[in-house]
Amino acid sequence: MSQNHTETLVNNVKGVCDSNPNPSFGREQVAPGRHPASARKTKTDKTSKIATWIVRSLHQKGKLENVVKEMERMKLNILGFAEVRWKGAGSMKLGSKTLIYSRGHTHERGVGILFDVTTAKSLGSWCPILDRVVVSKLIAKPLNLGIIQVYAPTSDSEDVQVEKCCEEIEKEKGYLKSQDTIIIIMGDFNAKVGDERVEDVVGPSGTGTVNEHGSGLIGWCQVKDFTITNTWYQNHPRRQWTWKSPGDRIETK
Question: What string of pLDDT tens digits covers the 253 residues of the chain?
Fold first, then answer.
């Protein structure tokens, strides 16, 4: 992503940095809908680093601080979260960083995106959709960048949950695409896409055996012209998994 900034962003983030993980501090609760901010387009040749993490709850004491430190250690510009497990939706400041989040009425599911100070200045708008989807648009040149952070239902979830999540992703994708925006959809899809090359969708570095969600994801990417990017980079076997079950019994990518 190409971006630089010549003026300070004015957005709707209030709140202050707070080391207490209690969700009632340092956060601005918001109603569902798009939340605009002002940002200015300019260009640079800087490369941004984007990652996503299944954090297994930020409700635990000290967990959020550890996540911020890890983001800084890895020099990430944007970090998406799945399984935030907070209540409600809103935004907050973490020192120089900006966090947006979308969650439900209970301490389950939940997603969020954390931006470093430079990238936050390009945050044009964002929208909490479901406790499984949050969307942001960054103002950049030559094209804007849209990020959809997802925590998809598991394979044993009811079909209506899966369909609702897919419908919202599709709707937001259409909204972003209409605004000259490159789209990145990231997060936990609860999908296994296997280790076999599939056109320009699945690369040579996938792992495991395709499951039902994986087959659906591959088919969707073929129709919508998306690429599953983490299957295109060769890593050491111990670095290929992105999720471990409790007790480290199962590792998946």
Answer: 333 322 222 233 332 223 333 333 344 555 555 666 555 554 556 788 999 988 887 877 888 898 999 999 999 999 998 888 787 788 889 999 999 988 766 666 789 999 999 999 999 999 988 788 999 999 988 889 999 999 888 777 666 777 788 888 888 888 887 768 899 999 988 888 999 999 999 999 888 889 888 999 999 999 999 999 989 988 776 666 666 666 655 556 5
Per the DSSP assignment, residues forming a β-bridge with 82 are 54, 111
Cα angle 229, 170, 28 (rounded to 5 degrees) comes to 90
Query: CA-to-CA distance for 16 and 8, rounded, in angstroms?
Result: 18
The answer to whether 140 touches 118, Cβ cutoff 8 Å, is: no
Structure tokens at 94: 């973490």
Q: Which two tokens stand for residue 81?
A: 């979260």
